[in-house]
Amino acid sequence: xxxxxxxxxxxxxxxxxxxxxxxxxxxxxxxxxxxxxxxxxxxxxxxxxxxxxxxxxxxxxxxxxxxxxxxxxxxxxxxxxxxxxxxxxxxxxxxxxxxxxxxxxxxxxxxxxxxxxxxxxxxxxxxxxxxxxxxxxxxxxxxxxxxxxxxxxxxxxxxxxxxx
Length: 164
Known about the structure:
Strand content: 25-35%
Low-confidence stretches: 1-14, 111-116, 118-131
Shape: rod-shaped
Helix content: 25-40%
Number of strands: 6
Number of helices: 4
Distance between the termini: 93 Å
Mean pLDDT: 75
Largest sheet: 6 strands, antiparallel, barrel
């Protein structure tokens, strides 16, 4: 039997040790500790953690309940802080639907709003002239359903007259 040579290397350290990707946003929510409730701003969010900004005096290791849209209270723990910013981890990962709901409820980004306003201004005439494809599909399906229903009624009436 022949032996094989192997080299075992330590994993390469990266500056971003996050387990899941985070989404940047700005969402005002409430955080409840055992003794108080505080207003916090979520700055970024993932299924496993988040970055919040608050004037509350959280300490490393402190656990609190964060009230997220469509999910309710999610327990989280402070793992680091820098001034008013606190890096936190959820005690159990939150569902992806909670991340989506938070993104939908988040305050709009000013730069994105400016781009949207410019697009609307440049395409104003075309915007109102076009119908969304979903509306056209809905209209076509409604017309088809109506035609099938009328044919069915006509066939029933025809059968009743021919049987009698």
